[in-house]
Amino acid sequence: MSTTLLCADPDRDLCELLARALGADGCRVVVAHDGEEALEALRRRPPDLALLDVTLPGRDGLTVLEAMRRSASPAAAIPVILWSVAPCSAEQIEQARKLGASALLQKPVPLDALLARITKLLARERDDRAADAARAKARVRRSVPLRGSLADLPFPALLHQAHGLRANGVLHLRNDERRKEVELCDGRPAAVRSNLPSERLGDWLLRSNRIEPAVLAESARRLLRGEGLQGQILVGMQVLSEEDLGAALREQANEKLLEIFEWQSGEFALAVGAQLRRATALPLEGSAADLIRIGVRTRLPMERIDAVLSAHAQDAIVPSANPFYSFQEVTLSDNERALLAACGRGFTAGSLFEKPERLRRAVYALLEIGLLEVRDGEVFRRGGPAPIVRLHGESIPRRERTLEVKTPPPALAKAGSKPQAMPKVEEDHSHYAADHEQRIALTALLERLSKPSPFEKLGLLRDATEAEIRSAYVSLAKETHPDRYARASHAVHDLAERAFREVTHAFELLTDPLTLAEYRADPERDRKEAQALDEAQRAIAAEREFQKGEARLRSHDWSGALGHFERAVELYPDEGEYLAYCGWCFYLTHGHDDAVFRKAFELLKRGAKLAPDREKPYLFLGRLCQAAGHLDAAERMFMKAVERRPDSIEALRELRLMQMRRPKQGLLGRLLRRPASDSERKPGKRKRPT
Asked: For the domain bounded by 413-690, which CATH number is listed?
């Protein structure tokens, strides 16, 4: 008999996504959108595991869990995962512990981490048999937990769901003979690859009248001779400048991605955690919502839009109540902002067919990016709290064959190798200036948000009016929304995620009349909740120490920087970036003997393991491998740094220097070769690295 999971969450898109992901792995998913519906599903057929949102309408998740534990049915013993978009209070955490919740998670949870947690619990419930546990472990390792048909879920909706889940991996798409692959970074398309001959760089340049046919033929001949990539060859032929090539690559990448919006059918599969090789990077400008909006307005077939609107002809379209989507980073035109304001009272989807095509496209785009949502029309017209209706169909794809995507393990320096001193490298921190300022600003904001009182979090007095509370919330939600930091580093993005959750939680507390009255009546409530904030305060203190260490490192005060990094690690030992900087400064401070090298290398390896999405641990590992004379391993580490941050100037420079030191063949080699400077010709002692 197949495994059954109950997913009780008010977010219908999220329920659908989990149904797809787990359904592809043979799991039956039952969904519910309020507490009463969840209890009814539990009475009909107890599942093997339940996933409950703490803020379920009607009966909340904790109340549902309490009813389960008191019942005499098999539902009393099943494992339960609780999760919430806002941080839970100390009382809620204690209640969840007493009721035997298996986990209490805070949204958004990465899809791969959630699936791993669910699979682990399901394996434990299958009588702990070794065969079942092995099959569960194998399912976690599968690289494609999410697949389906574009006929059921169009590409804009697929991108919207990936954005909401902060998905990381490669989205494989197929339509007849056409193949596309889109790499996702925190739910945002970062690179794209296509098998269409018409979308190759040379053909694209020819169609856009940037090169002549003879030039294309000559570049193709040189490409076959192994003289480099076609873009590099065209720059070497002085047909294109580097700026022209960059602009052409950006346009080509946009076209590859936008063309998918035209597909009316096809299949998709998400390989969680995978990465693309030799793909065209997408421009960093704009957000995921902007991309969906442009694709819907310019490429999505009109008959597909009308079909969706027809299916909801009697339902009401209203502004979204979800703060994550309400305050996401999106560029709207004046007409779209006016349309959004006009939706305040709601209107039926069927009334749109009297409007011009451009208006229907605009409404559909706002629906797909979550600024508008569909509500049950009959309940809405009666004036009641109408439930949200899912925009797309109810179909769940059947289980299909999985695609395997294997990533080779990183190769590091050989044990016992004698380290060598490295040549002096001038650090370029100019591209970190914006990140540094954002980290300082967000850390200062988080320090204020760490205060227990929701009034203090929003910068308000206890007698603040409802209008003042809402105004303060809107201002802070726009300032901290993670979409504003889509182009920043992972560290900045994580700080923004935490700040946005704190702001949203404070607003939810102050808009609940009962909770608001309790806060105003009990001045000691703030002190009671302060006990649950120690870890957050330690994290903020660690971030401040890290920022001080970064400043010392830039001024070449390695010993002073090491002290700050060591204190950051002591305060927050699970942050891989802190460990990586600590290991690098330890190496710079204590010389280059074997014992120092081994300790620094161990710290960097732990940092890379804890922060696999950051580029700095791999950059520093590359420099250590370079010092040990393991140039191949060093090059692999620098490549990993570039994969994690394509604009990492330091890693790109190291790769270029390594390439220039090798003997080059052909035109590309002659172009890159340069005579050695006087300082390079003279042998002498190598300087210590910075």
From this structure: 1.25.40.10
CA angle 339, 162, 272 (to 5 degrees): 170
pTM: 0.52
H helices of 270-410, in order, are 288-298, 302-311, 323-326, 334-342, 357-368, 377-382
Q: At what angle do helices 433-449 and 534-554 cross, to 10 degrees?
A: 160
The C-alpha atoms of residue 469 and residue 455 are separated, in whole angstroms, by 8
Q: State how far the Cα of 5 lies from the Cα of 47, in Å rounded to an integer.
A: 5
Specify whether the CB–CB gap between 117 and 94 falls below 8 A: no
Query: Residue 327 corresponds to which tokens in the numbers above?
Result: 């305050």
For 684, the token pair is 């002498």
The DSSP output letter for 352 is: G
Using DSSP, state whether 371 is helix, strand or coil.
Answer: coil
Residue 195 has pLDDT above 60, yes or no: yes
Segments in 58-109 forming alpha helices (H): 61-70, 90-98
The secondary structure of the chain in percent helix, strand, coil, rounded to multiples of 5, reads 55, 10, 35
Query: Which CATH architecture is the domain 4-142 placed in?
Result: 3-Layer(aba) Sandwich (3.40)
Query: CB within 8 A of 501, min separation 6: which ones?
Result: 85, 86, 87, 106
Domain boundaries, the chain: 4-142, 147-284, 289-389, 413-690
Give pLDDT tens digits for 404-449: 333 333 333 333 444 444 344 344 444 445 667 787 888 888 888 8
With a CB cutoff of 8 Å and minimum separation 6, the contacts of 469 are 458, 460, 507, 510, 511
Q: What tens digit of pLDDT does each residue of 602-624 get?
A: 999 999 999 888 889 999 999 98
What DSSP letter does each residue of 197-259 carry, written as one string?
GGGSHHHHHHHTTSS-HHHHHHHHHHHHTT-S-HHHHHHHTTSS-HHHHHHHHHHHHHHHHHG
Contact 654, 631 (CB under 8 A): no
Q: What DSSP assignment string belongs to 568-593?
A: HHHH-TT-HHHHHHHHHHHHHHH-SS
